[in-house]
Amino acid sequence: MNLKDAAANLNQAHPEDILHSLYTPWGEMMMRSGSYDDILPEYPRPQMKRTDYHMLNGLWEYAFVPADGSSSSEDSAYFTAQGSIRVPFSPEALLSGVHRRLEPTEYLWYHRELSFSTEELSQKEETMRCILHFDAVDQEATVFLGTKKLGTHSGGYLPFSLDITEYVNADPVSLYVKVRDLTDTGYATRGKQTLNRGGMFYTAQSGIWQSVWYEWVPKNYVINYKITPEYNKASVTFVLCSPKPFNHLEFRISAPSCDGTLAQENTGSLTQMRVRKISEQQDSFGLTHTTVVLSFPASVTYSATDPADAPEPVNFKSWSPEHPWLYPFTLNADEDTVDGYFAMRCFSVEKDSKGILRFCLNHKPYFLHGILDQGYWSDGLMTAPCDEAFVYDISLAKGLGFNMLRKHIKLESLRWYYHCDRLGMIVWQDMVSGGSTYHMPWVCYMPTLFPHMSAHTKDNHYELFSRGSEEGRKSWEQECLDTIDHLYNVPSIAVWVPFNEGWGQFDAARIAKMVAKKDPTRPIDHASGWFDQKGGDFRSIHNYFRPLQVKLDEKRAFVISEYGGYACHIDGHSSVDRVYGYQKYDTPEEMAAALKQLFSRQLFPLISKGLSGAVYTQLSDVEEEVNGLVTYDRRIVKLPVGHPFAAPSSFAAPYSHGNKPE
Predict the structure, then answer these.
(1) What is the gyration radius of the CA atoms in the chain, in angstroms?
(2) 392 domain residue, yes or no
(3) Residue 181 sits in which domain range?
(4) Do 615 and 527 fall within a single domain?
(5) Residues 6+ apart with CB under 8 A from 324
(6) 217, 245, 264: which is the final residue of a domain?
């Protein structure tokens, strides 16, 4: 172990730092254009798309007020604008135009006018409903129309919606949102945010940070649906949720595509599938859940004893990073019409011919060559400056030879997952961490120095793991389940990761069972890093300062879920002059040479010994954490073009155990 490097990277807060103004190319274009009408204009939910919608991103008014319980702070009638903010960028982000932090003792108020067209007014008369969507507001949001309080939502990473039909009229109506964000002074989910930023923890942000929009739907409409590919049965199960039962259901499945495009409009080429309505049930809220099974002709049943011998289905196209086949569909449910897509794929952990447990894609062992993705941008923080920025990051990772992104303790816009689906990128999805202030010597320094000790530590010592609040634990569990519901239909998500490095970890073995019950279709990495509770489907370790090695487990596959972290500071492309990283290099060329050694001499030889996957830290720089392969502003890729690491194709494709990579 390199004690010098480990000691040099003890996390330290540096709240006194003044971050440089650092724009991505897309953010710079936005600022130069001066236009506010096309901020993230794309439909926000491509997994379930309608045509009749209106985006509310753009200029809003804002005001910071003390959260003192007075009428002037609690009541929308007292709102007085202090300036304009570009929604959906948090006030702390450059692109917001505000550059002001929301303190835990304050409220942030938003305001904008809603005006409805003559056509929209006629839709109301035709008994259509108007649904207002907030894709993410950090952390607590209360929504008003005029002085009428519509509802409150807690949880800064999940969407919520409100029916505003009764407020649609010929006169403009004032929309207000009141936000409170305790960041790390409370127990709510916050991920990498901290009021005292520095090292591996980043600038706190608040407020609206994903799209705001509304759409028109029929009185009886598809609220949501759950899509489960039954790979072994050559079928797909849909469970539709609606206010009432539908009288008529019709699915049109288009021909599959793997070129990154989806074409519902290609009605001349359809996939023939048998459609069967299985059941119709009401829940305790009076909502109807309709189960429909779509079957491909000539069903295929998987029965191979060795995953490497699993046949390719001949009656449907399987999804993989190499061939990301997607099936677009149009669903007509009475008067409602939605477009979506699904993929035929299966994620599992199975034994290979040598009896070693492996991660499998479509029942074939598949090495996960992953990279950690924090999902931060220098000018938007957690909000991408545009849709193209999502595509850039995913394409860059894929172009460098990675087939998996570990989305690190953050939830992303649904458009990011859509691009992973269509471009072919497997996702390991972390749950967002929370809890009270972390005890870093306990959850970080001690495990780094004494990993065997942490591996035998029970996580029911709630105070040590910053989980003393029972209410906080219950809140996190519900948010975990809601996250699975929210992202269930994303084909590229392969693994759920409830906890990372003990940050707010508790009862991980039980939580793994809870997650598996909620979603039995995906493996679980229950405790990534240190405090292994022997649960889930992976033995998952972090290794930054020791030689990489495999430690096989009889019941779980083995993964190195974090390693590397090589740092290289590029002058003029970092928001902080200070450097944080696990091994430091002066030039990109030196870092690239070290990476070549790390991959060729340490990582790749472990595949034949039982390594199922590994996650390099990380894709992009974030503030002073300059261990990215691309700078924080996305302007400089640190690996030279044509570097051997840029295209390790022999590791990106499925492999059979015993076939030594070239």
Answers:
(1) 25
(2) yes
(3) 36-217
(4) yes
(5) 258, 260, 343, 421, 422, 423, 424
(6) 217
CATH number of the domain encompassing residue 505: 3.20.20.80
Please tell me whether residues 373 and 228 are part of one structural domain: no
Distances (CA, A) of 476 to 188, 210, 471, 638: 7, 21, 9, 37
Clarify whether residues 211 and 256 are in a common domain.
no
A 10 A CB-CB count for 10 gives 12
Same domain, 181 and 270: no
**Bridge partners, residue 295, by sequence:** 235, 274
Nearest by Cα to 392 from 407, 375, 380, 408: 375
End-to-end, the C-alpha distance of the chain in Å comes to 29
> CA 628, CA 377: separation in Å to the nearest integer?
12
Decide if 295 is inside a domain.
yes
Residues 6+ apart with CB under 8 A from 221: 129, 242, 243, 333, 335, 336
Tokens standing for residue 426? 């497997």
Q: Which tokens sit at 511?
A: 């939580």
Do residues 49 and 43 make contact, with C-beta atoms less than 8 angstroms apart? Answer: yes
Work out the percent of the chain whose per-residue pLDDT is above 70: 91
Query: What pTM does this model have?
Result: 0.94
Q: Is residue 357 part of a domain?
A: no
Q: pLDDT-derived band of residue 270, with 50, 70 and 90 as boundaries?
A: confident
Q: How deeply is 281 buried, as exposed, middle or buried, from its count of CB atoms within 10 A (0-12, 13-18, 19+)? A: exposed
Residues 124 and 232 in one domain: no
Tell which phi-psi region holds residue 533, choosing left (phi > 0), alpha (psi between -120 and 50) or beta: alpha
572: left (phi over 0), alpha (psi -120 to 50) or beta: left
The answer to whether the beta carbons of residues 27 and 377 sit under 8 Å apart is yes
Instruction: Say yes or no: 522 and 632 in one domain.
Output: yes
Is there a domain that residue 349 lies in? no
Which band of pLDDT confidence, cut at 50, 70 and 90, is reported for residue 655?
very low
Domain stop point among 292, 309, 334: 334
Q: How far apart are CA 275 and CA 15, in angstroms?
A: 58
How high is the pLDDT of residue 648? 43
Structure tokens at 527: 């405790």
Amino acid found at 135: D
Number of domains in the chain: 3
**How does pLDDT run across 350-384, given as a tens digit for each residue?**
999 899 999 999 999 999 999 999 999 999 999 99
On whether both 238 and 213 belong to a single domain, the answer is no
Question: Which tokens sit at 471?
Answer: 């209410």
| Contact assessment for residue 657 and residue 352, using Cβ atoms and an 8 Å cutoff | yes
Query: Which two three-digit tokens encode residue 321?
Result: 């990073």
